[in-house]
């Protein structure tokens, strides 16, 4: 017969359950229109606060003073961590980020906010720093505007949304000929994975196919192959399927070969 968990196990379970509850509450808040607050750091505050409540609640199961003190200390530490999480104000958000790390955080945050915030990403697709360009191009393809258009293309009939969609598409098409291959890969993936938002873009498929072919060369970056295969598994395109089939037949990586066969439309293992 299985023994009941000890106090440490119950404390851990209650803490994890509290954190999960906080995360679920954050998701509910996001669905209710609170995505901007969450993107500014509210996610972690909700999770740590929930975990803290769980740890405090577990103290009632303590069999002695030592266990109770331990649970209270865990709860207090998590509460301090939650209090220490800084949620940026809208005024701070409006400031221009300085440095690659701050820029990366800003790009991620803007991608989850209003269409006006998404539009702020556009200039960074031309940044001199290739890492910033790659992150910006990723955000141009994965954001609130594109997500809404993929779910409901009719949203694109709004003049403001249509104008922003056209700007996003133009920036991504420009990124397809970037001098850095990782930027081109992100642009191709963004365009090909959002056909309802951006329409059919054969140039994106051809770019991804070329990246897949080069992925077979010695010393090639495997991450780019995975990016291209992720997009290739979506809408069919002859060049993409052909390149994926070549990868499936050539690569020694079993996981990559399996993904390539799936992208090529071959389901056998």
Radius of gyration: 23 Å
Strand elements, count: 0
**Biggest beta-sheet profile:** none
Low-confidence stretches: none
| Helical residues, percent | over 70%
Helix and strand layout, with pairings?
Blueprint: H1 7-58, H2 65-84, H3 90-93, H4 100-111, H5 115-119, H6 130-141, H7 144-151, H8 159-175, H9 181-192, H10 195-198, H11 202-214, H12 222-232, H13 238-250, H14 254-264
Helix pairs in contact: 1-2, 4-6, 6-9, 8-9, 9-11, 9-12, 11-12, 11-13, 12-14, 13-14
InterPro entries: ARM-like, ARM-type_fold
Protein name: HEAT repeat domain-containing protein
Transmembrane segments: 12-31, 43-63, 70-87
Observed structural traits:
globular
Short structural summary:
The chain has 269 residues and is mainly alpha-helical. It contains 14 helices and no strands.
Provide an overview of this structure.
By secondary structure, the protein is mainly alpha-helical. The chain folds into three domains: 7-88, no CATH class; 97-199; 210-269, no CATH class. 72% of the residues lie in helices and 0% in strands. It has helices at residues 7-58, 65-84, 90-93, 100-111, 115-119, 130-141, 144-151, 159-175, 181-192, 195-198, 202-214, 222-232, 238-250, 254-264. It is globular, with a radius of gyration of 23 Å. The protein starts with 6 loop residues before the first helix and ends in a 5-residue tail after the last helix. The model has no long low-confidence stretch (mean pLDDT 82).
